Structures are given as structure tokens and as C-alpha cells.
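tl;dr need the bound structure. longer version: we got a ligand (magnesium ion) that a collaborator sent over and nobodys looked at where it sits. i said id run it. heres the input, straight from their email, havent touched it
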Amino acid sequence: MRIGLGSDAHRLRAGRPLVLGGVIVPHPRGLEGHSDADVLTHALIDALLGAAALGTIGERFPDRDPRYRGISSLLLLDETRRLVEQAGYRVHNVDAVITAQEPRLAPHLGAMARTLAARLGLSPSAVSVKATSPEGLGALGRTEGIAAQAVVLLEEA
Ligand code: MG
């Protein structure tokens, strides 16, 4: 078994869709970034790469690379899964948490978990996605951005 941890944060900006775990969440502002800036999927990718000691999302999918401009992060997750499997591991389970002052994410968490589970070839019961409020504290509490953290467990295939 190998454990991995991933953490990410992106700024919120008007005029972008808010994509979390591959799900579009209705909101006047979305996350800023080179790809679709799906902060949850980015944290998950970093956890997967970390568990297999395969580097970081920034090394694997550089934001200077025009191929990744506006790309769905689910495609980066597909490639990450391929790398992890090529290294001789399969994903056992995922736990993740999004820290967002707004919008209310509870109605969307199930869809995020199901979407990520499907991309990883896992049963929905192997993926947990939670959300927490920063209770008004700091930059996240001022709704300047959204952060996410993920942990994964890999097992030898
Ligand atoms: Mg990111």
C-alpha cells in the first residue's frame, strides 16, 4: 500500500464556469487557471502522483504548455491514472475535502464523487468528496478562492 496527499487552491474570477470534480456548479464566478482550474481534480492528481512518487501535476502538465490550455482536468486525471497503473499500482480509495465559503456544495458532492470514481474505474463507494466552510477566515473566507485536499491509497496491482 502507498499513501498520497494532494493540495491545491485557485482564485475565483467572474466570467468562468466553476468546475469541481468534473461537475459544473452553478455560480457567478469560476476558478482561474490555465486548464479548467478544477481544484478538486488537481488535488486528486497530485495525491495520485505523490503516492506513486511520480512527481507533481506542475511537472507532468506544465501550465506553460499550450496543449493544456482550457483542458478538462478529467483528461489530466485519465493520463495520471495511466501513469499510476503503468508504475504497477491500482487505486484503492480516495478521500477529499473542498474548502469553500460559497457556493453551497452539498447538493453536488455525490455527482463529483461518482464522476471521479468513474474516471478512476472505481466503485462509487471507494471515493469520498466532502466540503467544509472556512467560517469567514482568511482569503478563502473572503471568497477570493477555493481550496481542496485529497488523500489516496494505492495498492500493488
Ligand atoms: Mg491547480
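gonna send this back to them w/ a short note. The two ends are 10 Å apart (CA to CA).
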